[in-house]
Amino acid sequence: xxxxxxxxxxWKDNGYEGYVCDKPCYNNACLRLKNIAENKDDNVxxxxxxxxxxxxxxxxxxVGEGACFMSQDTYTTTxxxxxxxxxxxxxxxxxxxxxxxxxxxxxxxPYRWMMSHMGGQHGNENIEKLAERYGIEFNPxxxxxxxxDSNWVQESVNxxxxxxxxxxxxxxxxxxxxxxxxxxxxxxxxxxxxMGIGFITSMVEPPEHAHTDAGKxxxxxxxxxxxxxxxxxxxxxxxxxxxxxxxYANDHPEFDMRTIxxxxxxxxxxxxxxxxxxxxxxxxxxxxxxxxxxxxxxKSCIPGNWDECIRWTRDRLKEIWLERGSFPGLGSMLCxxxxxxxxxxxxxxxxxxxxxxxxxxxxxHLMENFGGSFSDKVKSMTGTTEREIFMSLSGERKELxxxxxRMSVTPLxxxxxxxxxxxxKHGVTCSDAEILDNPYILYERTLRCxxxxxxxxxxxxMAVFPPDILKQINPVPSRSALESENDKRRIRxxxxxxxxxxxGFGHTLYPLEQLIDELNGLPIDPPCHANRDVMNGYHEFLxxxxxxxxxADGSTAYQLKRLYEMDELIRSSVNKRVFKAKRHEVHxxxxxxxxxxxxxxxxxxxxxxxxxxxAAIIKELAEARLSVxxxxxxxxxxxxxxxxxxxxxxxxxxxLLLAPTGKARVRMSxxxxxxxxxxxxxxxxxxxxxxxxxxxxxxxxxxxNEQAKDVPFTVIVDExxxxxxxxxxxxxxxxxxAQRIILVGDPNQLPPIGAGRPFVDLVKYLNKDIPVFPKxxxxxxxxxxxxxxxxxxxxxxxxxxxxQWFTPDNDNLxxxxxxxxxxxxxxxxVVFKSWSTPEExxxxxxxxxxxxxxxxxxxxxxxxxxxxxGKINGEWMNFGSDPQKVEAWQILSAYRSxxxxxxxxxxRYIHDKxxxxxxxxxxxxxVRGTKNMLGTDxxxxxxxxxxxxxQKKEGYPKSENNMYVANxxxxxxxxxxxxxxxxxxxxxxxxxxxxxxxYWWYSGVSEEENSDLELAYALTVHKSQGSxxxxxxxxxxxxxxxxxxxxxxxxxxxxxARLIILYNDKAYHMRDYSSVIYSETxxxxxxxxxxxxxxxxxxxxxxASLIHKTINGELVRSKSEVIIANMLHDAGIEYEYEKEINxxxxxxxxxxxxxxxxxxxxxxxxxxxxxxxxxKYSRHWEEKKALYEKHGIVEGDNLIVSRDSLxxxxxxxxxxxxxxxxxx
Length: 1224
Prior knowledge:
Strand content: 15-25%
Shape: globular
Number of strands: 48
Distance between the termini: 81 Å
Mean pLDDT: 93
Number of helices: 44
Helix content: 25-40%
Structural class: alpha/beta
């Protein structure tokens, strides 16, 4: 048996040859490692950046994490036992010890194996289980009695016994080592990334800690030095060229780095954890297959001997398959049959079985002659009963045992899957016979189970469809075997896998053509060779789990059955409530209620229009059984709903407020309370978990037959643009008893993180035959008059005007706004600042914080603390008394991991400048410090933080409303709960959304677990959705491969008072992202209320009903522009759409169409005007026309102007007349 290993390494921005990072302050990915997070000193590294690490080992914690594994130098560090300082009684006798890192070696530490207990375990539970499973000679009596808590094995004798068992099957020149990083700067996903692959060539055991004779305890260092074969010539191992491909992607912005990134699959997450771990054969095979696929792409992008690397990888793949054999799960299966040392038994058996084609028979022969076949260690832990039970297995039970033994399952998975009663208990609804008939059903039926129970489709595929060499040696029994790579069972399982992945990307269905491409491109061996005939031939079998959806053009798409059922529920509920149900009769003078609600507003023509609009909408909301209310920031959605609830008839029936996030829930509840309306408010998850429609263990929303309790007559759901299709379906099912459902939101915001865009689809479905003003129809109301975001003179504020550019209705706006933005003449509510380097951006951020807060200068720590809610109490700076102050300002970015503009970078340098673990004396007060950090962000007292996981948690003081913290809630660390004699204190956090209580988290930094709390001075725009801040600082950067129309709209509308934009390009380039080309919403495939009509533009696909596409294939901004473009095309006239004109000092202008007549030597510019009835638009058009004339572009000469009529229609005959006049 050959054991392969994973080894964790930090990301370095200049490779691993032994140099300090080129930009150490911008390398945040390495901070995911505890040792680096706790000990990295940016000032030290900045002083020696780019220099050789040799000679600076003591100053650089990354050396101990393997940062020099490609160096030909030997490095030396000095270490001391980590418990010496705090525990002199038991560890005070340890001395400094030198540790040497040989050339081309990894420091390997098997952390999980060194834990006495982990998770919810106690005592020595973890190590004793490992000892039992692997025969480790662990002696619990040798462990010292400690007067403090520790979950690490302490005694050297036990530690060396662990090392011996862990490395026992490592064979030099045969065992592979796969280095991986926990985080890289080019991928936003928190997934393990494989950095390379090579052989283990040598091994140096760790030394013992130097010591005096004053204490009895002896302890070893954990670093075993693994020599490896990876070299830069890539002859016998190689690193993935990620840094080179990052440069390539920078020059080719459309390139997706994910396509060449090798991930550790989710099913192998544990094998790429805890620093150094055993790798299963299946995990290695998965990595090798992905590596081959990635290298096939890489070789077409950058020079290198990549074909040689591919051949090398293929050779390793063949070797691993043979090492794996046909029964990698046999040990786990024996454990499932109560063999204590099943894996050890199988290891010994495999060494004795020489005739592989008769493996099962030979194994039974060994079991029959048990006493003479196995070692005393195995015999001592194996009883007669389990052997008899195993030998008595027959029929389908025996078949199932050997089928599961072909899968690389864990002992826990084996136990669950083999025993029918355990399957039922864990929700795996299939019989022995069904598994034997279709092994892939295990993937399909465990898909919604906990992570521990899930069986990946790849694991099953490797088991039942291995390479020919294994098929010939140990053929799979015919009942379960596959005869073709296109076996219907295989095709269905992989189709489900792809559809589930696409649901995560936002698609609720997937076109057949693309599904086939995905199937055939999977990194599996042998590959699928699916085609339309294959899919059609399997129609009935596929339809058990996948539904065919007809598209508008006659083609076919596929949808997961679970999503189809949810869509059916949504359609049925909406149509019944909107078109069939009896409407409510509510007798109220709505205009009077509106006038009373908004009586403090200054009377004006605009205000009267707003009230007229609100009165019409509130009437519809009151009478409909389901309705939508849409409107941008500042249109008064919440105030309108409060006015609705002032109706005694409605209020007496009960009102429930729901929102996807805790922050949105609290914000809506507080706004209602200001209007005198008290009602219950919950997050969607809180509400749905009560009726089993939200699964905590998988964070999934689902349907249920359980009736929701205490549902009032009226339910208002806010921030509905954040609802996924699953959330929406679960909500409508749970709210079946509600008399009135009002769905509130802004469809221009980011679509939900997950499947679908149900709110956008519902708005589109109901927004038909709606008058121009007020925009009210059956079950539909749109607020259009913005009051809050107007300037003092009644004019539209610059931020509101800018936000409109990033909505679908942006074809008739003033493009001059981007020049005004660049020039600083857009008003007081928007500020634009340019930056060119990351260092300049950092300075601009500190400068902006000083300008927009109570700070006197950029070094004013006291002013900074006050700006996030700190208050001086006597001589101390205290936090938590005003948690809402954390919303006074917020930095936003599209990225988390980007080393220049990601939130991780920004949070880091703000935290480093203004926060410290040490107590500090400021100008007028002191700030308490703490020696305890929380998480790899180094969170300390007074830090602004965000919770990043929905979780049940008790607040203090206890209350029924304080039992839950939602993903996205922002708060302040108001205290550190000190516990004498314990290593872990607790961070107490008070959230702005729950100011009445605090929640606690254990202080400390975990080796593997990601903290639930992260720094929140900077947030991604996605995290900010549902929140509102007084001031927002938006950081933008090119290339902007994460930017979208909806993202910019969401970011621009997060603030109430001021928006500050920091951008490394000219402001007018922001206009590019206003195009539908950059729409996330239009790029999603759904079929909720109409057949999908999917069209291709360049390399992307869009929903046709959400875009405007010409005959030539351009995506334009309006139907009118489509008509003009198509008529130009029909007339044989070549044109360019939205081509920039440089007008010198007057900046860039972008006419709708540019037509160059080379024969005449004239260039015509065509502008289409659509809103000349609007005085503001008309004024902007006259200004633009005057500017054109200044530069020789004159209407009637070389400027062609067409106009919509006042009702918004375009006259084709007028367009034809203009073409005939000027262009023919």
